[in-house]
Amino acid sequence: MTINIYEMTRKELVSLKSDIEKILAKLHIKEKKDALAAAKKAAAEYGFSLDELTAKRSTGGASGTGSSAEPKFANPEDSSQTWTGKGRQPLWYKSAIASGKSEEDLAI
Questions:
Q1: Spans of all domains in the chain
Q2: For the structural domain made of 70-108, what CATH number should be given?
Q3: Residues 84, 40, 50: CA angle, nearest 5 degrees
Q4: Which tens digit of pLDDT belongs to each residue from 10-47?
Q5: What is the pTM of this model?
């Protein structure tokens, strides 16, 4: 099916744009999940878990131990994005709250 966008009304174009943005967002999530699965598979082939390879290491300091707080909130669309609840709110947190989610919805 061929669509001639030059013959479409403004309303039809806006609707098409909205549909395209929704599809692109879904594809982005799917591709991200596929990439994560591929990364986990590749790590497993070498005998590691992806968490082992991507774990943040302590950079030293006076005590030599990390002092970061445990995360309390996670992005429901990307669980690798977390927030401790301290300091500046991340954009994904602000966006989720603005869209009607509660703190409990985002809690780990």
A1: 9-55, 70-108
A2: 4.10.430.10
A3: 45
A4: 999 999 999 999 999 999 999 999 999 999 999 999 99
A5: 0.45
